[in-house]
């Protein structure tokens, strides 16, 4: 109890520290506080809370943030010595847990044969049930009975609940699935993984050792043994199994994170960084990025693989054409009208798009309000809700640098690249000055010849004036055309890059808005191309202007996500579609409420989901890929972070649907170094 109160107090002190303006030195921040300092901080915490306005308190309550009772914390702290406080701080900052000899001995004491598996599972399940609340057990039993009645896979449903952040339901259901069929080795592996991540590593190891004897060199089993020993604080054994896993699959996501913590605990930071980089390359998560940052390494775009190729011209901007630039005065009148008509068509379409933009902005605001309310409600209930599109953080690292300008801004205005166009316009001014001087020469030449009763050589004046004006147009528009082409090619590429970036970092309704903004930006930029015009000499016959051929503009191509992947896990469907990375339950008409009255929590991990081709054991991340059509899903405490295909698997990589009664998912435990969790303290 004191430990929990101490942790709550530390969180409160962190809030106070953020509010204070005076920074602390690194050494001061790392030094554990004394009992007196804790009491002083507690008084300061109470003062800060007393200064909160009723509106601020109400807002925090609406967000699910409950202010701690400092009197209760103070009473619990009174019996804590400076040594106990120091020990608590050290445990909170520990990279790997202390070696738990009691639980290690219990794990080593059980040599589980396959014949003994049924009894062991039954006893373990009964022990686990003592840690689950009556509400959870009642809900889980209801779901279990409905699944059996409808002949739905209990094991697959348990995995689905685990991925969806409902570990208590997953524990119950997987325990029942293993009891019903203790020969299903994939379910046994997953149950052991659940036990490990919930804090009962000593109960998981006998199951995993049995599986390892029967399925040697299986990377999922080896990884799960790694995580179990790491959770018990036996770093030497954890490293042995981590190394075995990585020899078989060098980029194994979870084993590399275990290796990272092991190296960090030994003070070998370069090797810890190396392992974390291998883990994050094909399976990004914000947790891993934070770990790398803590180790002193800033993640770079080249550290992350990005499998979806970037489209060259998603909007079809290259299809747009515009009138020619007039290079001689004889073409000026016709082309000037063509440009006026072109600009009018662009403006008309811009006006239509502006109306559409207003409608989409309202839709986005309305849906954002609903989404924010759902986040608040989920927080109040202790449930998980996705705050950002699934691939946002990964896309910001990988794609962000390609779309940001020198100031770090992302927009459809490219002012820095417009300089060449401005320089070309300045040259036009110079050419205008030269033209004026040449015109003065012509005026002087024909001054005495023009007028009533004089020779009036209009044809000669026409020819001379048209000559200098055509010379002006050729020089001015040649520069303008080159500058405009260079800029518009850049704008075309950047608009496509930005749309690709926004496709992975914004919600669908927001992306629809960005598409319209991109279209407006393109039309505005091609409409506003600077073009030089110069009419024929007034001494020439009035030109006959041909009718314009321009009737309409090209259509934009629709930008739709081309990289859709669907993983079916029986009752659970995971859809990865650009910005969307979601999981949804579908019990085939069976009414099961999975949103209320259940405890929630998300633990780091991954799964190999596949259709078996005669292989019955747990799937390793590589060694068993050849016998399955397989996809991967990765998650951390923020929810799902990645869905993809295993390299070298049979079947298509993008767009593959994994369906059928044989579909199974093999869980790879994520790092769990605290020894805490739902099953903490279990015997």
Report on this structure:
With 683 residues, the chain is of the alpha+beta class. It has 3 domains: 2-92, no CATH class; 99-297 and 562-683, Tetratricopeptide repeat domain (Serine Threonine Protein Phosphatase 5, Tetratricopeptide repeat, Alpha Horseshoe); 317-527, no CATH class. The protein has 24 helices and 8 strands. The protein has helices spanning 2-19, 26-30, 35-50, 54-62, 70-77, 82-92, 101-109, 117-129, 134-150, 154-163, 167-180, 185-197, 201-214, 219-231, 235-248, 253-265, 269-281, 286-294, 329-381, 392-398, 400-403, 419-446, 458-505, 508-527; strands at 564-569, 572-577, 580-585, 605-612, 628-636, 639-645, 657-658, 663-669. The strands form 2 sheets. A 4-stranded mixed β-sheet has the order 3-2-1-7, with helices on one face. Strands 6-5-4-8 form a 4-stranded antiparallel β-sheet. Helix 12 packs parallel to helix 14 (219-231). The relative contact order is 0.13. The model is unreliable at 1-29 and 646-661 (pLDDT under 50).
């Amino acid at each position: 109890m004191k430990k929990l109160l101490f942790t709550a107090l530390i969180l409160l002190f962190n809030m106070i520290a953020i509010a204070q303006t005076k920074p602390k030195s690194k050494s001061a921040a790392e030094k554990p506080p004394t009992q007196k300092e804790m009491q002083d901080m507690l008084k300061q915490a109470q003062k800060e809370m007393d200064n909160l306005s009723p509106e601020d308190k109400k807002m925090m309550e609406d967000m699910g943030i409950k202010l701690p009772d400092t009197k209760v914390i103070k009473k619990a702290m009174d019996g804590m010595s400076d040594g106990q406080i120091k020990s608590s701080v050290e445990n909170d900052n520990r990279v790997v847990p202390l070696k738990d000899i009691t639980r290690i001995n219990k794990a080593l004491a059980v040599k589980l044969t396959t014949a003994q598996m049924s009894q062991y599972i039954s006893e373990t399940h009964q022990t686990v049930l003592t840690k689950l609340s009556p509400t959870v057990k009642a809900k889980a039993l209801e779901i279990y009975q409905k699944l059996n009645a409808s002949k739905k896979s209990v094991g697959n449903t348990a995995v689905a609940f685990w991925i969806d952040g409902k570990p208590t339901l997953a524990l119950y259901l997987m325990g029942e699935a293993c009891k019903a069929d203790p020969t299903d080795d994939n379910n046994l592996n997953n149950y052991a993984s659940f036990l490990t991540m919930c804090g009962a590593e000593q109960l998981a190891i006998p199951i995993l050792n049995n599986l390892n004897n029967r399925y040697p060199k299986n990377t999922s089993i080896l990884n799960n043994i790694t995580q179990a020993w790491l959770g018990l604080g036996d770093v030497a054994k954890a490293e042995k199994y981590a190394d075995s896993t990585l020899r078989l699959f060098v980029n194994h996501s979870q084993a590399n994170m275990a290796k990272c913590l092991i190296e960090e605990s030994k003070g070998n930071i370069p090797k810890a960084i190396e392992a974390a980089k291998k883990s994050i390359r094909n399976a990004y998560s914000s947790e891993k990025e934070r770990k790398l940052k803590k180790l002193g390494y800033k993640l770079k775009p080249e550290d992350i693989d990005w499998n979806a190729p970037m489209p060259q011209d998603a909007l079809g901007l290259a299809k747009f054409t515009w009138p020619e630039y007039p290079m001689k005065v004889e073409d000026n009148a016709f082309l000037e009208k063509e440009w006026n008509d072109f600009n009018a068509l662009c403006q008309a379409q811009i006006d239509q798009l502006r109306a559409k933009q207003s409608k989409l902005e309202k839709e986005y605001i309305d849906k954002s309000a609903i989404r924010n309310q759902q986040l608040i409600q989920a927080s109040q209930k202790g449930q998980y809700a996705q705050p950002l599109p699934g691939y946002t953080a990964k896309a910001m690292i990988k794609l962000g640098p390609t779309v940001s300008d020198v100031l770090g801004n992302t927009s459809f205005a490219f002012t820095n690249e417009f300089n060449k166009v401005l320089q070309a316009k300045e040259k036009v001014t110079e050419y205008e000055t030269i033209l004026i001087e040449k015109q003065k020469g012509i005026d002087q030449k024909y001054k005495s010849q023009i007028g009533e009763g004089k020779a009036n050589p209009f044809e000669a004046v026409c020819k001379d004036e048209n000559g200098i004006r055509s010379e002006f147009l050729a020089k001015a528009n040649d520069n303008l055309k080159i500058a405009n082409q260079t800029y518009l090619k850049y704008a075309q590429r950047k608009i496509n890059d930005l749309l690709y970036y926004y496709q992975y970092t914004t919600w669908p309704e927001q992306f629809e808005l960005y598409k319209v903004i991109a279209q407006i930006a393109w039309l505005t930029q091609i409409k506003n191309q600077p073009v030089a015009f110069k009419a024929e000499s007034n001494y020439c016959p009035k030109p006959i202007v041909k009718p314009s051929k321009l009737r309409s503009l090209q259509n934009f191509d629709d930008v739709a996500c081309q990289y859709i992947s669907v993983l079916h896990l029986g009752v659970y469907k995971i859809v990865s579609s650009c910005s969307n990375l979601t999981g949804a339950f579908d019990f085939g008409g069976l009414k099961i409420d999975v949103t209320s009255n259940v405890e929630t929590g998300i633990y780091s991990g991954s799964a190999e989901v596949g259709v078996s081709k005669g292989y019955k054991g747990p799937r390793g991340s590589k060694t068993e890929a050849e016998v399955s059509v397989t996809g991967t899903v990765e998650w951390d405490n923020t929810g799902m972070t990645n869905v993809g295909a295993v390299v070298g698997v049979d079947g298509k990589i993008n767009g593959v649907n994994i369906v059928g009664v044989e579909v199974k998912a093999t869980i790879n435990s994520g790092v769990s170094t605290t020894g805490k969790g739902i099953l903490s303290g279990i015997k």
